C-alpha cells in the first residue's frame, strides 16, 4: 500500500483531494481512460486499483465501501458487473499510466491513465513466455554440446 503523503495535497486540502480523486475514479471507470496531469494520475492509480479489488469481491460490504468513494450508482454497477469480473484471475496491475508530454497552456506534464482491456494475468503470460524462451535456449545448447565435445576430442588427439 502506498505511503500516505505529507504536505500539500494536489494544491488543496485533504477533503478536496478525496473528492477530486473520487471524481477522477468515477470518470476512469465510466470512460475507460482519462487524460490528466501526471501527479493526479499517480495519486489516482492506487485508489482505482483498490476499488477494482473491492469489485472483484463483489459482496455487499465491498459495494458499500466503493459507494463511499464513488457516488454514481451506474458507474458502481459497471465496476462490479464488467470491470471486476474481467480481472478475476489477475492480482493487481489493473491500470496503465502513459505519459503524453506537456500541456500547451501551462506546460504541466500530462498523462493518460486507463483501465486495461484484457483481464489476462500479466505474470502468468510473462512466466509462460520466459519458460518458452528458456526451453528454446536449452534446446540450442543441447544441440551445440555434442559438436563441442567432438571438436574438443579432435583437438586433444
Which tags fit this structure?
Ribosomal_bL17, 3-stranded antiparallel β-sheet, ribonucleoprotein, structural constituent of ribosome, Ribosomal_bL17_sf, 157 residues, alpha+beta, elongated, Ribosomal_bL17_CS, 50s Ribosomal Protein L17, Chain: A
In what range is the share of β-strand residues?
A: 5-15%
Q: Which whole number gives the mean pLDDT?
A: 86
Output the radius of gyration. Answer: 24 Å
What is the topology, as strand order, of the major beta sheet? 1-3-2
Largest sheet, in brief, is: 3 strands, antiparallel
Low-confidence runs (pLDDT<50, min 5 residues)? none
Amount of helix: 55-70%
In the CATH scheme, what's the topology name of the largest domain?
A: 50s Ribosomal Protein L17, Chain: A
Pfam families: Ribosomal_L17
InterPro entries: Ribosomal_bL17, Ribosomal_bL17_CS, Ribosomal_bL17_sf
Keywords: Ribonucleoprotein, Ribosomal protein
GO cellular component, one term: cytosolic large ribosomal subunit
Summarize the structure.
The protein has 157 residues and is an alpha+beta fold.
Question: Please, could you describe this protein's structure?
Answer:
- The chain has 157 residues and is α+β, with helices and mostly antiparallel strands.
- The protein has two domains: 117 residues, Ribosomal protein L17 (50s Ribosomal Protein L17, Chain: A, Alpha-Beta Complex), CATH 3.90.1030.10; 37 residues.
- The protein is built from five helices and three strands; from the N terminus they run αβαααββα.
- The protein has a three-stranded antiparallel β-sheet with strand order 1-3-2.
- β2 and β3 form a beta hairpin.
